[in-house]
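Let us work through a complete example step by step.
Step 1: write down the sequence.
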Amino acid sequence: MIQVVVDDLLFLSKIRETAKHLGVAVESVGIADLPKRAVEDVPSALIIDLNHPSGKALEVLRALKSGLKTKDLAAIGFVSHVQEDLIAAARDAGCDLILARSAFVRQLRGLLQRFSQEDIQT
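Step 2: predict the structure and record it as tokens.
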């Protein structure tokens, strides 16, 4: 299962529909609930909007990457535009893959397949 922290409902719908088509389990999680949910049910990956309206995306990433159960969690982040400072800060926080929003959309199918191999439903 891949946990998704995205507040944009249209974008979240695109992720869900693509995952459904591929048979990949995704779970939408609120940013405040993510640290607890990720420990309770460690996902195969995390997709997070680095421009999350809460402003807490990097804080949550740091917490997950420093946690014993979640330190190896694959974190995929995306940004609205090419934001070099945010990209650098996300890398420092432990984000494993950072894409511009448009590149993320283009690569969504492959990303879901790549990061959920053990979760593909047959």
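Step 3: interpret the result. The beta strands are 2-5, 26-28, 45-49, 74-79, 97-100.
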